[in-house]
Amino acid sequence: MVVTLFASILVVNGIVLGEFTQDGAVASTADTDQVPSAALKGGPVIQTDGKTTTTVTVPDKQIVLTFDDGPDPKYTPEILKVLAEYDVPATFFMIGSEISQHPDLVRQVRDAGHEIGIHTFTHPDLSTKNEWRREVEMQETQFALAGAAGVSSVIFRPPYSSTVQALDNSNWAVMSDMGGRGYLTVVNDLDSRDWESGATIADITKAVLPEDDAGAIVLFHDGGGDRSKTAEALATVIPELQQEGYTFTTVAKLTGMTTVNPAATGKERALGLGLVGAVRVARHVTGWFAALLLVVGILTVARLVIILVLGRRHARRKPPATPYTKPVTVVVPAYNEKECIADTLRSLAASTYPIRIVVVDDGSTDGTAEIAESLKLANVTVIWQPNSGKPAALNTGIANADTEVVIMMDGDTVFEPDTVRRLVQPFADPRVGAVAGNAKVANRQGMVALWQHIEYVVGFSIDRRAYDVAQCMATVPGAIGAFRQAALRQVGGLSDDTLAEDTDLTIAIIRTGWRVVYEEHARAWTEAPTTMSQLWRQRYRWSYGTMQAMWKHRRALVEKGTFGRRGLLNLAIFQTLLPLLSPLIDVFLIYGLFFLNPLETLAAWLGMLAVQALSTIYAFRLDKESLKPLWRLPLQQFVYRQVMYLVLIQSTLAALGGIRLGWQKLRRTGGLEALLGQRVN
Length: 681
Fold this sequence. Notes:
Helix content: 40-55%
Distance between the termini: 50 Å
Number of helices: 23
Radius of gyration: 37 Å
Strand content: 5-15%
Shape: elongated
Number of strands: 18
């Protein structure tokens, strides 16, 4: 609903900005057989119903000053000041979109006693538009005028119009149509050409001085482009014409009407107020979002640069001088893992490091415990317990561990022979309380799994390296993580307060002062979801649990230490708030392609994609991964990323609503041992 509302606001703003180009005369054609001779030989004020045509010519020594394409917040006040100085009336042919944006200027024009005419809503060439578009252009401008100043208008000037000598079949069709709608069309006799970029004050002045004392309707502009010379030229033209005996009049006086701006009806005013309000809201929202988008872009690029620098620093670090050699316990929580448990335990049995394995069966109903026991592997203990959830299963395993370090892994994961040895080496430093390993996707068949493979490589190869150096690691992954027992005891083990027990535990440990580091060479291979529905359930739980953990540990923001200022803010800004804005950013991209400069919009978007692509390639190089899967990266931006947005939105709504989720189990296919052989051989 928010995205739809935002899209609607952008459409309103886009329509307001749409098609507005600087004014200027359009060359006429030789096709005039449908133009009445009364129009071709008459004056610049034209009344027609399609059958009968009459015109009004400006009497000698009289001038009607007209201004098109406003109101403009810069130039209209300048012109009004000059007109007031010489007490001269004028007629302003206004653009509906500009009226909607600057209703206060419209009221200033009205209150100063000037006339207001209709110049369409978006300034299109009406000869190329159908009747429906013409009706919309005129009606919306009338509504805008009614909402801004409480009046309507019976006079009209077509965009890009010129003199009666320029009338041809196409523009006459527009005037005839407008006459049938009750409008009096007003063109001009003299064009100041203040819309020309090279026009000087002298050029403008010369262009609007009549010959042989003739009267004239004179065209100036108070909007639509650079009108910086118009007011100055006007201050020269008016006194010069007055010295020559000219007087200034209005369209109403020329035609004998009481006013060209009768009061709007109550309905018109109500609709107009709604239109003006919608446009102003759209303009403000679009402006704010454009500024926000700039901030987001700067933050995103700055964060990317920082994590790349920190990631590179981590890649160059030296291994511990003293190796860690003490035995460790590997705890494997298992719930209905019959497809994978055998592969998991066999991979642990092949470890080159001394370990004891504790399998905690959490009330499985598919024979997981029986499979684990039937393998009869050395140093494997299987503990049965009623279904109590993953945190409880892990706590049971920890309670049965008698080593200084405990490794936790998932029952659907396999280790390489050297994984445990590499994972525990950082514990040679007594300040280290936990170590995150490098989780990798084993089943890299299918688009969904490959997208996750790309995501995992970037997340582990760059992000976790940077978090290690910045000492703000938020998550030791459940698939592969090692913990010092002293740190676990200090935080009371794992909690079931959140669905992201790994994030909850990691934050708790780092808040107590322990260091949490990343060991990229300790690799674990896990089976990723292969369908969108499975992926949705998994990421929904992860995202929701992360939000729970952030809220639980919110006091870290005011505590001493680095996590609150770095880790928690990183989670809040870059993993929650900015991704929530991403759908709006995509909508803004589409808006930019249609209503802004499409080349600049596309260039900015492609530039961001290029930066992301380069960082992804760098991550793959750091992790010594093949670059072949990266041809799927563009598709990831259009499909996978959108799904993750929706997951985050659903998680946010669930968190705000206080919905409680359970431990959701994904369906596995197994065969990880074979896949592992393919990856490492």
